[in-house]
Design a protein that fits this description.
alpha+beta; elongated; two-stranded antiparallel sheet; 2 helices
Length: 64
């Protein structure tokens, strides 16, 4: 999976994270303010399903 960034909900600094780690329950820490960011347990199935669909779309259009 790929690395992405999301804005910190507290200070808006972009936090680098790996999608695979996020799905597996890893929490990421904002390098600026120290806020911990993680995926809510209830959101995990939705995120996994969305990523699977996105991967299928990439395959359908010929990207690797």
């Amino acid at each position: 999976m790929q690395e992405v960034t999301i804005p910190c909900p507290d200070c808006k600094t972009y936090i680098p994270m790996e999608v695979k780690g996020l799905i597996s329950g890893v929490q990421f820490t904002c390098p600026n303010c120290g806020a911990n960011i993680g995926l809510a347990k209830d959101s995990k199935p939705l995120v996994q399903d969305t990523l699977s669909k996105f991967d299928q779309i990439k395959k359908d259009v010929g990207e690797k």
